[in-house]
Amino acid sequence: MAAVINSATLDQAAYLSGEIMTLTVDYTADRTITVATIVTDAGGNSSAPVIATALCGDIEVTSDPVRIWDLVSDNGTVATFTAVA
Amino acid sequence: MIITVRVRDATGAVATRQVSTTIGGSSISYGTYDIARGIDATEAAMRTAIGYNGVLNNHQRAYSGTNHPLTFATSKVANAANWHHTAMLNTKLTDWAGLANGAYDALINGFWSSWPVGIRGWVTCNHEPENDGGDPAVWVAGIRRYVALAAARIRARGLDVAVGGVLMSYSWDSERWRDYDWWTGLPTIDRPQTFFGLDHYGRCLPGPPVVGEDMITPLREIIDSVRPSGIQRFALFECGLDRRRKGQSTIIGSNQTIADWLPGFDTGLQSIAGMEAANMFFSGQVGPAAQYAQIGGVALPIWAQIVKNGLP
Predict the structure, then answer these.
(1) Backbone conformation region of residue B302, classed left if phi is above 0, alpha if psi is from -120 to 50, else beta
(2) Does B274 contact A at CB distance below 8 Å?
(3) What is the pLDDT of residues A19-43, one digit of tens each?
(4) How many residue contacts between A and B have a Cβ separation below 8 Å?
(5) Contact between residue B74 and residue B115 where contact means Cβ atoms under 8 Å apart
(6) Is A3 part of the contact surface with chain B (CB cutoff 8 Å)?
(7) Rounded distance, CA B165 to CA B142, Å?
(8) Which of its termini does chain A have fewer beta carbons within 10 Å around, N or C?
């Protein structure tokens, strides 16, 4: 499934210099990878698979003019960033 | 401002989306600091020059001398709200080690507890440390402690004030600025309340005609090098065009040179994101030996109009 950004919204339409901007990103992206580990000995006996998952891929925000966007939260579908206007 | 969001999934597929916003209200708070005439006489001269009767300077800049005020009411910007819109205060604690070690925490907390809600301002402590001859590492430790204490009070009380360290821009002529790097590693929580300050002077270039040098390009380079720290607010506690020839002591500039240079400097400052305040500094010296241009002659109405344009 391809990554999709459903929406990216700011908490205000405009800002004064120095104000905090909060950006909320609603996205759909399968960022989970599943790893199965199986150990096989010299005799060809294999263990039951051990399944582990990890979060892969990333989400990033840039801006022009340049600001530092700090990731506040990310639950896998909604991420929130803040920066100083 | 154009904001770009990129999401990449586990397969490497990328989605991109842009959103835009406007950052306004960025007119620079201009002030004028004239050692010889003082703020009231300077104001009067500026008003007369353009036939304007209101308060002109956007902020009142003051220097606390060798002592840090105990309260806002006893500070030299205490009447800022009566005569001016905002306050720019340069405080001093000559005991750098004491500041770094917490000896003045109670004083600092008391002062910041007294700053009135609603009075906008910019405050620093021990500006231009390069000129004081102390150990830069101790100064850095001190200003970081000062910023942390002040920023916490600003947040707790909802003040409209920024706190920060102020260096001389000439420290970027060499690698000396690294000794005074107080901004790298600034805690995220303190960034919104913190500004990066500079005292920034330029010189004149020989003609004909004699012109003021480009002070915006080096300023922008310094500021852009600071932005990755997370500080996005900037202020010039002192700025001005020195009438001496660049690299020499011969005075070649005039009030006309200043008048011609001022509009470009204003436009340049306006183009720097996050530039909140700038104070035009006049040395108080008069006559042909003056290093810096006075608020006089053809430069006076030009400067007064620029300041007036920035009124809220």
Answers:
(1) alpha
(2) yes
(3) 788 999 999 888 777 888 899 999 9
(4) 134
(5) no
(6) yes
(7) 10
(8) N
